[in-house]
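B., you asked whether I could sanity-check this one before it goes into the benchmark set. Here's the sequence:
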Amino acid sequence: MHTSMDQEFSLLKEEEIHQDRWRRSSREPHLPRTSRRNRKKTKSSRDCHLERKEMRVRDLGLGYDSDEIILFKYCVGTCHSSRRNYDLALKTLMDNGSISGKKVSGHPCCRPTRYETVSFMDTQTTWQTIKWLSAANCSCVG
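And here's what the prediction gave me:
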């Protein structure tokens, strides 16, 4: 009877090993794509990114009378690595005079893709809320 239990245990263990192999092999084709996605790109300080600066509300130039300090977040950097075929072709056509460059943007720009709402108290002790004031995320747009 002891041999029978050992045999059952051995068969169960073998089945687990096969199931584990099947699970691993069914995921293997996706591993390279996942690992590529998880790799961090090294960003230089010139790439599009979010920066922060403490500012007095009054200094924002929006007409609010308040000495409160807020954290203003804004987008800084270049988007040269995000240029597409459109941008490259447009630049060539502008350079050779085929297209007038009056108000044409020949490259993507670093802009907020999400904003934060900011609340503060003005000098009249009234709560004020400004929507879409501070950048929450930056990306190359255009």
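One thing to flag: Residues 2-38 form one domain. Otherwise nothing jumped out at me.
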